[in-house]
Structure formats: C-alpha cells, structure tokens
Amino acid sequence: MSTFRLTDPACRPLGMCQTYIDITDGYRAERRLELLSRAAANIGATLDVARTAQELADVLVPALGDVAWVALSEAVLGGDEPPKMSGPGQWNLRRIGVAPAGEGWPAGLPAAGALPPALPNHALLRRIGQGETVLLPDRESVVAAAEGYSELAPLFVPEHGHSAIAAPLFARGLVLGTVVVWRTRRPAPFGQVDADLLTEIASRAALGVDNARRYTREHRAAVALQQRLLPAATTDSSAAGTVGFYVPAGGGAEIGGDWYDVIALPSFRVALVAGDVTGHGLPATATMGRLRTAVDTLADLELDPDELLTHLDDLVQQLQGEAPHQGDTVGASCLYAVYDPVTCQCTLASAGHPPPVVIRPDGTVESVAISPGPLLGVGGMPFEVTTFDLEPGSVIAVYTKGVIYREDHDPDAGLRRLTDHLARSVSPGCDLDGMGHELLRSLGDAPARDDMALLLARTRALATESIATWEFAADVSVAAAARKAAAGQLAAWGLDELSFTTELVVSELVTNAVRYAGGPIGLRLIRGDVLVCEVNDPSNTQPRLRRARWSDEGGRGLFLIAQLTARWGSRYTRSGKTIWTEQPLTADLGLLDLLP
Fold first, then answer.
1. Which end of the chain has fewer beta carbons closer than 10 Å to its terminal beta carbon, N or C?
2. Cβ-based neighbour number of residue 280 at 10 Å
3. CA-based diameter of the chain, in Å?
4. Distance between CA atoms of 550 and 196, rounded to whole angstroms?
5. Number of neighbours of residue 178 by Cβ within 10 angstroms
6. Is the peptide bond before 158 cis (omega within 30 degrees of 0)?
7. Residues 6 or more apart from 200 whose CB is under 8 A from it?
8. Cα pseudo-dihedral 477, 481, 487, 489, rounded to 10
9. Helix (H) or strand (E) holding 572
10. Helix, strand, coil in percent for the chain, rounding step 5
11. Where are the extended beta strands (E) located within 23-91?
12. Residue-averaged pLDDT of the chain
C-alpha cells in the first residue's frame, strides 16, 4: 500500500490518495515454483519404489495439503507393468507412501496396506485410471463420491477431510498408481490451480516411480540369474560340511559377479572357490557363469591351484579380446583352495583375492598369509601356492571383497573386523548357517554397494584305520604281492565282496606302472562312502582309454577298469602321477557281467 497527497497547480491540498497492489497471484506463483523445485530435488533420488512413493507424500505435506497418501499397483512393487483397469480387482492397489506418519495420521485411516479389490469399480478411480486428475472441492462432493461405499469411507476419507485432489501416476503410457491429497485443518478448499499443480508434480514423480520399477525388474532378473548360476548353499562330504551365502548389492547398485563354489574332487578331496568379476550388471553375471563353468572343468583335470589359475587367466584374456565388441572390461579375482582329508592339508592360490580366514578348534583365528598373484586377465605373472595344515573341526572362511570393503574403504580394517567377529562367534560344533547369518548381520543394516559372497567350511579327517598304504619296487613279481595286500586289507575292513574286482584293478594298474613307469610304485586304499584305490608312479605319461581290436594282444586293461569301477582318472603330482579308481561299497560289478 502507498499513500500520497493530492494538490492543485498552486500546491493547495485537495485530498489524499492510496494505492493497493494485490500480490496474491505472485505469491502463489512463487510458492508453486518453490514446490516444483523441491519435488524435482527430493523425489526419485533412489531406485526404490516404496521410498520414491514416500518422498512424494512428504513433499506434498504440508506444502499443498494436510494429509497425503500414495497407492501403487502391487505389480509395480514387484517391478512388473500394472494391468489395465478394465475389470474389478485387477489393479490391486497398495498404499505405500503416507504423510504425515505416526501420530499425525488421522484415526481410522491405515498408514499402509492393501486397498479393497472392489475399489477399481469406483467411477472416480476409473477416471484416474484413464489419466484424469479428479478434484473434490468441497464437503458435498466428498460425500457424493463416498455414496454407496460408506463401509470403505474410513479407508479413504480422513477425519475432517473436506477437500481433496487425486491425480494418476502416469508414465510411459502406464498408470502406476494414484496420489491423493486432502485438506483437513486449513479451511481453504482446493481449486483448479492446485489440481494443475498436483498433476505436474505427479507426472514428474511417476517417472521416478517407473525408473525404480524398471530397475527392480532388471535387478530381480539379474539376482535370479546369479542365484541359478551359484551352487547349492549347503553341501556335506567326507572332507567338509559347507554353507554358502550370497547377498546382492543394494542402495541402487547393480548386481555384480561374485560367486562361490564347492567342488568334490577324487580321493575325498574338496575344492573351495571364491571369485569376483569386475563391474556390475548382467554382463558381469554372465562372465561369472562362464568363469565358474571353466573352474569346474579345470578342477576335473585335477590341476594344482596355481596351474588352474594360470589356465583361468588365459580364458579371461580371451574374454578381454571379445570385450571391445561388447563394450565391457573383463577382469576378475579368484581364490582356489583344495583340502585333503587324508593329509589334513589345504593348498591354495590366489589371483588378487583376499586371503581366507581360519578358525581352529582351540578358538584361535588367523588370516592365512598368502602371496596373491595379479588379477585374472593381467597375464605373464606366476601364481604362488600356499600349503598349511588344517586340523579336523577347523572352519575356513572364503569370501569376496564386499564382505570387508565397507564405508571406510579400508580392506585391512575390514579384515580385522571379520577376524574379530569370527573369534567372538565361533565355537566347536557351532552351526555354520547361523554363524554366517550372524556375520552378515554384523556388517550393518545399510545396503552394501557391492555384492557379497561368503563360504564357510568345517573340515573333517578320514580315520587312520580307513587308510592303507604300501610301496613296491619296479619288479614284475610285485603285482601278486600288491593283490595279496589289497585282499588282506579288504578282509580286515569287512569288504570281502569287493576283493575280486579290487584285485583285478590293482593287478592291472601295478603291472602297467612296472612296465611303463618304473619304481617306486605306491598303492593306497581309502575307505569312505566309496572305496578308492590309488597307484602312483614316477612317470608323467597319462594313460588313455581305447578299445583294442580283436587282433591286439594288449590295450584292454583300462577298458576293463572303466567297466569294473564307478569312475577312474589320473592326476599329476610333483613326482609323477597318480591313477585312481572308485568303487561303491554296496555292490560288486563282477567280471561276469561284462561277458556276452
């Protein structure tokens, strides 16, 4: 307001004049821009559907109304597209975001939960489903809208609610849900300007909800693929009982390529594997699947850990050659450890992977001192092998870097936290599954920026009375002595029914070692859930199975062994090779079964 005096040309006073400027429209425009700016800054900052809905409700109260709620289709919460509102009960709305929360929420209006399935029959909601914003400017229009739905009115009309606006969350041709704003305390009703403002805010928020929905769908697909590619979470063998855990990344981070594996090896040994592919998303998951398959295949060749990682490094370099065409960078870390329950020793090698942690039966916890090689894909560098004793009842934990890399980004501090927690929580005979879940809970509630894989294994040992070992010179007469020793040991174990087949296997393997490899020749029988027969010699020549022609005088030995045993194979050792066979304890195949 401005006041000034009116005078004539002679400066004689004539009166007073006052001017008024109505700034209401300017003030409302300023408030509108401020609310739009706040909505753009605060809505859709995360890729979480429920959180985005709550952000929308928080922006609207108290800036626009006294009460607000956001309801989304249940399909949207799962990452799927919502159905068309063409029939009753098809939308399946669920109230997600509410404001104000807690004590400020009016009595009779639940803060969250599923809305009645009959709701889509309502004319107003059908209009919303068609993309229209609905304005209820006064109490009379609210009463008219609730007519015929008196039993449901407390679910939608807050106490003292006299004016409302309902706008669709419409994005990319889909109505994802609805946002409703009520005025209960302030007397001024909503007008068309308010409805237009809510329409604009809802359209922007809908894009954030849809982005979160699409991320949820892709994240769910990647997690499902990752979990399908991982082995069974729990295994039990003569060497160890294991439990594995996989936790996908959260907080908007994409799925990664972390994995663990437990591979049963011949002679009751077991391989424990953990790996981490660089990058995130489906490409990292697909690369993880290829590397895990490669590790399984290479493990079947019974290579030493350093040799296996060398072959795996070659594979990653090949994948890098494909990467320029795919636009991805390929790299990975990997830890490969083999535990032998006969010798109670663990042999491992690491390609840029964190060291395992061992909890011994006396309660001492230590991080295994290793010399990690370069990441897979670097090439040209050797991998070093570490061998250490592992008493029966020890727990070995192998994991990926997501377990120790937390907010401080300090792997040494993370490793100390891991060892300290294991020292407090592990006791003889404790449940590995419960221990793993407790360990993951100790990392905090904040969603990890990297996925995590954890494998816990409690080691076992074969009883000494279940192992028999002999050594023979390279002489043609030792085959008979080897057969006699094997038959005597089987009789002592109460496995006389296996004597015939085992003697044939021992005789063939020892005779071949004498003929082609020289001495000394080692023979070992191991009794577990199967009978293992091992013959080792100083030769590096691998035996090959072939079908002999009818005129050949030899070449049928390995064919007979393959038919008489459940499986057989060979592996290189530091001083030669070992040929092994496995036979079931419950049945003897019998040579007569092979005859026509």
1. C
2. 18
3. 148
4. 93
5. 26
6. no
7. 36
8. -150
9. strand 567-573
10. 35, 25, 35
11. 67-73
12. 84
SS3 535: strand
Q: How far apart are CA 280 and CA 47, in angstroms?
A: 16
What's the number of CA atoms in the CB half-sphere (13 Å) around residue 400? 29
- pLDDT, one tens digit per residue, over 89-124 is 466 788 888 888 754 454 544 555 566 654 555 677
3-class state of residue 532 by DSSP: strand
Q: Are residues 17 and 4 in contact, defined by beta-carbon separation less than 8 angstroms?
A: yes
Are the beta carbons of 54 and 68 closer than 8 angstroms? no
In the block, tokens 């007073």 appear at 16
Cβ atoms of 275 and 331 within 8 Å: the answer is no
Average pLDDT score over residue span 16-40: 71
Asked if residue 279 lies in contact with residue 263, where contact means CB atoms within 8 angstroms, the answer is no
Cα(295)–Cα(448) distance, integer angstroms = 27
Q: If DSSP codes are grouped into helix, strand and coil, which group holds residue 245?
A: strand
Q: CA 115, CA 152: separation in Å to the nearest integer?
A: 10
Identity of the residue numbered 86? S
Count Cα neighbours of 220 within 13 Å in the Cβ-side half-sphere. Answer: 13
Q: The dihedral of CA 142, 147, 152, 154: what is its sign? A: positive
pLDDT of 408 strictly over 70:
no
Rounded to the nearest 10 degrees, what angle do helices 282-300 and 305-326 cross at?
150
The pTM (predicted TM-score) of the whole model is 0.74
Token pair belonging to 194 = 């308010």
Vertex 549 angle, CA 544 and 552, to 5°: 85
Specify the higher pLDDT residue, 425 or 407: 425
Judge contact between 299 and 261, C-beta under 8 A. no
| Backbone angle region of 17, left / alpha / beta, with phi > 0 → left and psi within -120 to 50 → alpha | beta
**pLDDT tens string 181-205:** 999 888 999 999 999 999 999 999 9
β partners of residue 334? 275, 351
40 Cβ contact list (under 8 Å, min separation 6): 204
Closest among 319, 242, 247, 322 to 288, alpha carbons compared: 319
Helices (H), 426-477: 432-442
Whether the per-residue pLDDT at 577 is higher than 50: the answer is: yes
